[in-house]
């Protein structure tokens, strides 16, 4: 998430907020539920915020949607800087994200092998797959993106629509499980495309009505995905996607005073390491403590270990870059 050539203050604030929402969702809401604990604070937030607004999963999907929009915004800038040459674009994306994801997967596998409990749910793996799929489609369409950005985005959405429908077919027939997984990842790609559209409009590569139409098509695909994959219907993802888009667009031209603070800069620059460390390190550390100490003590310890792991990953990534 820190690969932008010219950081945008509002995007930095959105990134920091999204990481915090994801940490709260997985290390507080989800972990407490799965391990039979209750928290008055979590119950109050659910009853007074989550349920009235329709934002489910303890803000987890809202945070993921915001991060996907940030990813789309960032990757769009990298694609434009690369021009029509696919190799520099692919190389920069690989250097920026692949080592972090590979290390996180290896650590998760090691922790599982020794009996720990990292979180490897689709809630974590599917967004990573969505970003990879978004980047792959953009890579294929890079020459078109350079010449006619609006048309390239429309073709992207057509490809995504076909993949979502194919994944729905695989789900309904129970065949080709890999196609189902790809379809579920494709269902999140429109969220990254919304960030891409925002970047293209911001740099005057899209007319206002073009951006509006493409944005509505992205949201329509999110609604379609909910119909195709009924297991997600209870979480009201389209509504959370609309909230995320509104927050993203409101924050985009603002946030300069907040973005300059040390905490926001740290969260923004380490967003990807934090995103993978929360389920791999933080969740596993919580699992190792819950029989010994109370959640009120275990959660801060887990957050500290998560931040330390993310800092280590960030520094290793900087050395490799």
From TrEMBL:
<keyword id="KW-0472">Membrane</keyword>
<feature type="transmembrane region" description="Helical">
    <location>
        <begin position="93"/>
        <end position="116"/>
    </location>
</feature>
<feature type="transmembrane region" description="Helical">
    <location>
        <begin position="122"/>
        <end position="144"/>
    </location>
</feature>
<feature type="transmembrane region" description="Helical">
    <location>
        <begin position="59"/>
        <end position="81"/>
    </location>
</feature>
<feature type="transmembrane region" description="Helical">
    <location>
        <begin position="7"/>
        <end position="32"/>
    </location>
</feature>
<keyword id="KW-1133">Transmembrane helix</keyword>
<feature type="transmembrane region" description="Helical">
    <location>
        <begin position="151"/>
        <end position="170"/>
    </location>
</feature>
<protein>
    <submittedName>
        <fullName>Uncharacterized protein</fullName>
    </submittedName>
</protein>
<feature type="transmembrane region" description="Helical">
    <location>
        <begin position="182"/>
        <end position="202"/>
    </location>
</feature>
<feature type="transmembrane region" description="Helical">
    <location>
        <begin position="235"/>
        <end position="255"/>
    </location>
</feature>
<feature type="transmembrane region" description="Helical">
    <location>
        <begin position="267"/>
        <end position="286"/>
    </location>
</feature>
<feature type="transmembrane region" description="Helical">
    <location>
        <begin position="292"/>
        <end position="313"/>
    </location>
</feature>
<feature type="transmembrane region" description="Helical">
    <location>
        <begin position="209"/>
        <end position="229"/>
    </location>
</feature>
<keyword id="KW-0812">Transmembrane</keyword>
């Amino acid at each position: 998430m820190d690969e932008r050539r010219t950081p945008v203050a509002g995007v930095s604030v959105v990134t920091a907020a999204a990481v915090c929402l994801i940490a709260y969702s997985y290390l507080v809401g989800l972990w407490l539920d799965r391990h039979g604990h209750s928290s008055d604070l979590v119950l109050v937030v659910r009853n007074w915020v989550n349920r009235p607004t329709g934002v489910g999963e303890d803000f987890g999907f809202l945070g993921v949607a915001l991060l996907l929009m940030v990813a789309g915004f960032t990757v769009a800038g990298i694609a434009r800087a690369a021009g029509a040459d696919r190799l520099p674009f692919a190389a920069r994306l690989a250097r920026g994200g692949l080592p972090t994801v590979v290390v996180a997967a290896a650590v998760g596998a090691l922790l599982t092998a020794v009996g720990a409990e990292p979180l490897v749910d689709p809630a974590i793996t599917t967004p990573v797959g969505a970003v990879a799929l978004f980047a792959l489609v953009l890579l294929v369409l890079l020459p078109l993106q350079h010449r006619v950005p609006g048309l390239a985005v429309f073709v992207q959405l057509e490809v995504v629509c076909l993949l979502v429908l194919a994944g729905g077919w695989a789900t309904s027939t129970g065949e080709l499980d890999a196609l189902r997984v790809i379809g579920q990842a494709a269902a999140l790609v429109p969220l990254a495309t919304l960030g891409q559209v925002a970047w293209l409009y911001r740099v005057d590569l899209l007319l206002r009505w073009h951006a509006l139409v493409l944005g509505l098509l992205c949201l329509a695909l999110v609604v379609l995905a909910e119909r195709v994959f009924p297991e997600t219907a209870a979480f009201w993802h389209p509504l959370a996607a609309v909230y995320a888009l509104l927050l993203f667009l409101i924050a985009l031209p603002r946030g300069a005073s907040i973005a300059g603070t040390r905490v926001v800069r740290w969260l923004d620059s380490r967003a990807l390491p934090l995103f993978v460390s929360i389920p791999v390190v933080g969740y596993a550390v919580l699992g190792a403590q819950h029989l010994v100490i109370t959640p009120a003590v275990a959660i801060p310890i887990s957050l500290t270990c998560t931040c330390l792991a993310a800092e280590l990953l960030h520094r290793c990534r900087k050395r490799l870059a």
